[in-house]
Amino acid sequence: MDTNTEEKYKMFVFGLEEAGKTALISTFQENKTVKDTEPTLNLLVSKYFTDNVKFMVWDAPGQVNCRNTWEKGFSYADLLVFVLDVSEKQKFEEAKEEFKRVLEETKKGVYDTPKIVFCFHKMDLDEAKENLEEAKEFFNLKQYKSRKIVWFETSIYHLDKLKELKKILEEIAMGIYF
């Protein structure tokens, strides 16, 4: 693909603070584990290229006082990527509320209904492994029958899983996956 073209696939990455969004994006872009990141305080826009797709990545801050910026990022997004820190069980309720809020906002007809990738993240941690089944039940992604959702178990330390996710993201962007 000619990376100078204006064709871009807009990916909005969101979740609560400290979910690992920026580390996940940086690990994607660097093709190696990136664990030292600063908290995101504004929408960060970056580019990520595959052989076939030019992604514009919108990395959203997760702090409560910054979530009002999310609409700027998910407006006209082609793909929503929600990152849940599965090790933080006490944050599931808040995370679900924010996930549902963004889904509702993107369903109102103002924006095209984007596809969704849900990342059960930080799966390298014992707490996340212990909480995984409860998280899957709690979020019950099958209930969103009118939305196209795919989920993954992710960790910045499991590069083989991230390679699979990259392939799916590219296939989604190319219209192959859904």
Explain what the structure shows:
The protein has 178 residues and is α/β, with parallel strands linked by helices. The chain is 33% helix and 21% strand. It contains 5 helices and 6 strands, in the order βαββαβαβαβα. The chain has a 6-stranded mixed β-sheet, with helices on both faces. A hairpin with a 4-residue loop joins strand 2 and strand 3. The N terminus is likely disordered.
Task: Please summarize what this structure is.
This protein is 33% helix and 21% strand.
Name the features.
alpha/beta; Rossmann fold; six-stranded mixed sheet
Number of extended strands: 6
- Report the portion of residues in β strands: 15-25%
Figure out the total of helices: 5
CATH architecture: 3-Layer(aba) Sandwich
The unreliable regions are 1-6
CATH class: Alpha Beta
Mean pLDDT: 91
Major β-sheet profile = 6 strands, mixed
How many structural domains? 1
Distance between the termini: 21 Å
Indicate the radius of gyration in whole angstroms.
15 Å
How does the helix and strand content classify structurally?
A: alpha/beta
Sequence of secondary-structure elements: EHEEHEHEHEH
CATH superfamily: P-loop containing nucleotide triphosphate hydrolases
CATH fold group: Rossmann fold
Q: Specify the helix fraction band.
A: 25-40%
Strand order of the largest sheet: 2-3-1-4-5-6
Tell me, briefly, the overall form: globular
